[in-house]
């Protein structure tokens, strides 16, 4: 729905962009904040009869910018049914529908090593100081092989590595591509490793579309072809112009489609709870090969 | 006879995953180009570039940006249009191209002699020679699947229902509703090929577009090769008449020469000499 996304891409499930989004409205179903309204209760909405039972459905529906993550016609004053299961066992003011009690839990008895409130930390490698407060990164995030030559980490604002890089996947390839790079039907659709970079950076560095580019981080350097595009570009962060580049990481030295290993660049840093590799945001340098 | 069946492609929900391309190739056992070894096109995420004899589906990627992050990325899964008035079918000299009971257009590979007339006749550039069979090939709208009540492989694989398959009359209604919904949201949206009174009698694979057809590589006014038929027929008649008159003049000269000339010489060659 417009407002929730840029009209491309799709989020599982139901193209819903924010989970538990009934919580963006107060107990009565009105937005907590006019500026941040997201999903709210429209008591005047005329519902069609139930398609299965053909019984009339009372007025009122959750509407807004996102696909509601709640019973679409379950009113804010709905009462839980004592013998109900799933959503029927929750009241109209309990948005956390995947929890047995329908409540969001700030504190949990076990499991999480951080929390309880969300905050903003910079990635381990960042071109800027955390603009929110003096704690730069999560104090409990994981750093594997600290100090080893293959896990050198850039300091904040390191001039040798001025650009932010994100790594990601493509729909055509699977995981690191070890299987999909052997499949002719998939290999032909994304035949070579590339780096997406903005037109501004390309111009600064004299890089043209399809030129070979060397991308380096404190851990190593790799080669890829340039895909110059306005889909990615320059951000203004804390008064600094910071170029952002992106690379898919499916390539390796074997298969029908081969290319350098992008994980040679990524930092061996992970999130505190489930150790997810911080490959979405770290720093690099880009030069024409 | 079953109803006319076809595709409605709603480009606004295409996410460019290319599942349709892969599903098509898998079902129809079409080879990858050069065994799957290729080079980056540099044209957004489109490394297929065109429809041809081994690419019966092609997802276009159109980047419309004014500056960094400022614009939109259009995606569209293109395929044979299964025109109600099909140029390929009109020009095929062997009768290899047929209209099926589903009102779709299919090339029978065992009848095609690879003459390429249909390649030039298609206003959309859909058809090309499949190097494996040596014959002209294109989307069959999964005729073999339709025969046994299955939907085509591409629409089956499409995760967002950008490609919808069904009876054309029903698809047109659904498409009209979607256009109205988008317009109510302030999005420019138009159908391409949904009008049975429009070009080529309507397309049995029609599209919902948010920009001009040319942006998606589609002709604004697709035309049949027979559009020139009356003109060229007239020209043929006129040239035949002119040639006939010249031939008569030539024959008369030949006859006069024979009468008054020294005789001898092969008379049979005379027509050619004159």
Describe what this molecule looks like in 3D.
The complex is a heterodimer of chains A (289) and B (274). Chain A has 289 residues and is mostly beta strands. Chain A folds into two domains: 1-109, no CATH class; 142-288, Barwin-like endoglucanases. Helices cover 4% and strands 20% of the residues of chain A. Chain A is built from two helices and eleven strands; from the N terminus they run ββββαβαββββββ. Chain A has helices spanning 184-187, 199-205; strands at 39-42, 61-64, 142-143, 163-168, 194-197, 212-217, 220-228, 234-237, 240-248, 269-270, 282-288. The longest helix of chain A has 7 residues, at 199-205. The radius of gyration of chain A is 24 Å and the shape is elongated. Chain A starts with 38 loop residues before the first strand and ends with a strand. The mean pLDDT of chain A is 94. Chain B is 30% helix and 18% strand. Chain B has a four-stranded mixed beta sheet with strand order 8-1-10-9. Chain B has a two-stranded antiparallel sheet with strand order 2-3. A two-stranded antiparallel ribbon of chain B has the order 4-5. Chain B is α+β, with helices and mostly antiparallel strands. Chain B has helices at 19-28, 87-91, 117-121, 143-147, 153-157, 168-184, 229-260, 270-273, and strands at residues 5-10, 58-67, 70-78, 97-99, 105-107, 128-130, 135-137, 163-167, 190-192, 205-209. The interface between A and B is large, with 35 and 41 residues.
Give the SSE map.
The complex is a heterodimer of chains A (about 290) and B (about 270).
Chain A: E1 39-42, E2 61-64, E3 142-143, E4 163-168, H1 184-187, E5 194-197, H2 199-205, E6 212-217, E7 220-228, E8 234-237, E9 240-248, E10 269-270, E11 282-288
Chain B: E1 5-10, H1 19-28, E2 58-67, E3 70-78, H2 87-91, E4 97-99, E5 105-107, H3 117-121, E6 128-130, E7 135-137, H4 143-147, H5 153-157, E8 163-167, H6 168-184, E9 190-192, E10 205-209, H7 229-260, H8 270-273
Parallel strand pairs in B: 1-10
Antiparallel strand pairs in B: 1-8, 2-3, 4-5, 6-7, 9-10
């Amino acid at each position: 729905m417009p407002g929730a996304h840029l009209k491309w891409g799709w989020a599982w499930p139901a193209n819903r962009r924010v989970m538990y989004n009934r919580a963006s409205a107060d107990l009565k179903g009105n937005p907590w904040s006019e500026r941040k309204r997201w999903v709210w209760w429209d008591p005047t909405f005329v519902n069609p009869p139930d398609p299965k039972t053909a019984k009339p459905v009372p007025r009122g529906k959750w509407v807004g910018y996102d696909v509601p993550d709640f019973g679409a016609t379950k009113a804010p004053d709905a009462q839980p049914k004592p013998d109900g299961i799933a959503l029927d066992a929750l009241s109209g003011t309990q948005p956390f529908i995947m929890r047995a009690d329908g409540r969001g839990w700030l504190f949990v008895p076990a499991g999480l090593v951080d929390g309880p409130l969300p905050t903003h930390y910079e990635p381990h490698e960042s071109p800027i100081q955390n603009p929110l407060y003096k704690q730069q990164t999560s104090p409990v995030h994981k750093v594997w092989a600290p100090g080893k030559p293959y896990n050198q980490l850039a300091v904040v604002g390191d001039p040798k590595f001025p650009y932010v890089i994100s790594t990601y996947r493509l729909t055509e390839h699977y995981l690191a591509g070890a299987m999909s790079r052997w499949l002719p039907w998939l290999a032909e659709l994304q035949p070579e490793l590339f780096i997406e970079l903005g037109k501004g950076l390309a111009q600064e560095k004299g890089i043209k579309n399809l030129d070979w580019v060397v991308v380096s981080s404190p851990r190593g350097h790799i080669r890829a072809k340039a895909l110059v595009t306005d889909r990615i570009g320059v951000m203004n962060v804390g008064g600094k112009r910071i170029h952002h580049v992106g690379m898919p990481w499916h390539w390796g030295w074997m298969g029908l489609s081969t290319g350098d290993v992008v994980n040679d660049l990524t930092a061996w840093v992970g999130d505190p709870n489930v150790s997810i590799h911080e490959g979405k945001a770290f720093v690099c340098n880009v030069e024409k090969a | 006879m079953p109803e006319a069946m076809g595709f409605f492609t709603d480009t606004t929900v295409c996410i460019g995953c290319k599942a349709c391309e892969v599903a098509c190739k898998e079902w129809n056992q079409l080879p990858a180009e050069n065994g799957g070894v290729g080079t980056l096109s540099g044209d957004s995420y489109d490394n297929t570039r065109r429809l041809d004899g081994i690419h019966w589906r092609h997802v276009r990627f159109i980047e419309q940006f004014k500056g960094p992050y400022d614009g939109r990325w259009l995606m569209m899964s293109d395929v044979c249009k299964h025109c109600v008035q099909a140029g390929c079918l009109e020009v095929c000299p062997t009768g290899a191209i047929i209209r099926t009971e589903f009102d779709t257009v299919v090339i029978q590979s065992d009848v095609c002699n690879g003459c390429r007339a249909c390649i030039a006749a298609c206003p959309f550039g859909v058809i090309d020679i499949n190097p494996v069979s040596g014959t002209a090939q294109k989307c069959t709208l999964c005729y073999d699947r339709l025969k046994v009540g299955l939907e085509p492989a591409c629409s089956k694989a499409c995760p967002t229902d950008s490609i919808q398959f069904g009876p054309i009359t029903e698809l047109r209604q659904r498409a009209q509703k979607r256009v109205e919904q988008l317009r109510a949201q302030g999005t420019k949206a138009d159908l391409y090929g949904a009008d049975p009174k429009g070009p080529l009698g309507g397309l049995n694979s029609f599209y919902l577009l948010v920009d001009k057809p040319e942006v998606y590589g589609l002709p604004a006014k697709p035309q049949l090769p027979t559009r020139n038929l009356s003109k060229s027929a007239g020209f043929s008649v006129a040239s035949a008449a002119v040639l006939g008159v010249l031939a008569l003049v030539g024959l008369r000269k030949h006859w006069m020469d024979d009468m008054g000339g020294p005789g001898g010489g092969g008379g049979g060659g005379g027509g050619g000499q004159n």
